[in-house]
Amino acid sequence: MKYQRATVTEDRLLELLAVFKKKRIAVLGDVGIDRYTQGIVERISPEAPVPIVFVQSEHLKLGLAANVADNVVALGGNVDITGVIGKDKDAQDLQNLFRDKRMGASLIVDAKRRTILKERIVAETQQVLRIDYESLEPISENTQKRVEAEALKTIKSSDALIIEDYAKGLLNERMISACIRVAKKYAIPVLVDPHVRTPAHWYRGADLLTPNKREAEALSGIRIIDDKTMIGAGHEILRRAEAKSLIITLGREGMAIFKDSKSKPTRIPTFAQEVYDVSGAGDTVISVLALSMASGSKIEEAAFISNIAAGVEVSKRGTATVSPKEIVQAYLAHERG
User: Fold this and answer.
1) Whole-angstrom Cα distance, residue 183 to residue 153?
2) pLDDT for 321
3) Mean per-residue pLDDT for 167-176?
4) Gap between the Cα atoms of 287 and 242, Å rounded
5) d(CA 228, CA 36)
6) Does the structure show a pLDDT above 60 at 271?
7) Which of 16, 52, 160, 295 has the smallest C-beta neighbourhood within 10 Å, fewest atoms?
8) pLDDT tens track for 296-336
9) Using CA atoms, how far apart are residues 166 and 321, in angstroms rounded to an integer?
10) What is the pLDDT of residue 6?
């Protein structure tokens, strides 16, 4: 299948990016913290054949669905995010991060759960180890009612809804269905970043699903080995989820855009020139897609712009955000090159 060049002019790009700051995006999903512990390795431990990392710095960053919200704000948009935290120090740190970013965050406290923390131990430029602190059991009925009430409240005053599924106990079929139903009532587009462990029918009625290749295989039950199987997987996902459209992100192979469950998809190439770290690229993609669709773009235009943004994001180390200025610079460099 041949790649197609999206017809987004510089003027159209600037027009859409300018509208981003007028849009408000509701985000629902598991929230957490990314902690980066940076150091150097000079010797191996005498206790076990593992490196000793001499810590030089530590920093905290918004993670999981909170990173999506961070991306929306970095792109100039406004955000309201709903999630669950524990009653611990990490919860305080997370609240402080949201406060520093001046984001609207409805964080429901559940003392029986711990706040999600992902710690990455990095020696110079090499990640040595990642440690995850999290609760994976489903949230309680009482917590679910509180989360759902807050989420529905934010949806009604938003221009698009992003549902970030990390399968860490927050989301279930009932909550997703209720949010999509209310969004439809107010004609608000719903974008879903799915998870491999969640069945496609949980996302029934979404406007756009954005799985990567592995997630697309899990959602469809089809192993993707070539264009034919990729098309079959895309059509099957759309049928199972009864979704309007689908974008399968394919890493170095770009994206495949499905507008229905029968016609062939549109393929667009990647914009990434250098790839340092792919973590967080999906968060950037869905953030740009949501803001673009809320701003009135066609799905091809939205995918084109998000592809540019993803190319910028993967050139940075760790989970990172992208600014409108960086998107324009990358676009111009691509057009001139």
Assistant:
1) 11
2) 85
3) 96
4) 22
5) 41
6) yes
7) 52
8) 999 999 999 999 898 888 877 767 789 999 999 988 887 77
9) 19
10) 57
How confident is the model over 96-110, as pLDDT tens digits?
999 998 888 999 999
Provide the terminal-to-terminal Cα distance of the chain, rounded to the nearest Å. Answer: 24
Which residue's entry shows tokens 């960053």? 61
Q: Per-residue pLDDT for 277 more than 70?
A: no
Q: Work out whether strand 255-258 and strand 245-249 pair parallel, antiparallel, or are unpaired.
A: antiparallel
- Structure tokens belonging to residue 93: 């740190």
**Does the annotation count 100 as an active-site position?**
no
DSSP 275: -
Alpha helix stretches (DSSP H) within the chain: 10-20, 65-74, 89-101, 141-156, 173-185, 213-220, 227-241, 281-294, 299-313, 324-336
CATH architecture for residues 10-31+76-112+137-336 = 3-Layer(aba) Sandwich (3.40)
Instruction: Check 30, 80, 159, 283 and give the catalytic one.
Output: 283
Reference 107, options 135, 66, 76; nearest CA is 66
Query: How many CB atoms neighbour CB 317 within 10 A?
Result: 13
C-beta separation of 46 from 100 below 8 A? no
The phi-psi region of residue 221 (left if phi > 0; otherwise alpha if psi is between -120 and 50; otherwise beta) is left
List Cβ neighbours of 288 (8 Å cut-off, separation of 6 or more): 71, 75, 302, 305, 306, 309, 322, 327
Q: Could you report the per-residue pLDDT of 147-159, keeping only the tens digit for each?
A: 999 999 999 999 9
Q: Please answer whether residues 150 and 105 qualify as being in contact, where contact means their C-beta atoms are separated by less than 8 angstroms.
A: no
Look up residue 326 and give its amino acid: E
CA distance 61 to 33: 6
pTM more than 0.90: yes
Classify each residue of 236-258 as buried b or exposed e, where b means 16 or more C-beta atoms within 10 Å of its C-beta.
Answer: bbbebbebbbbbbbbeeebbbbb
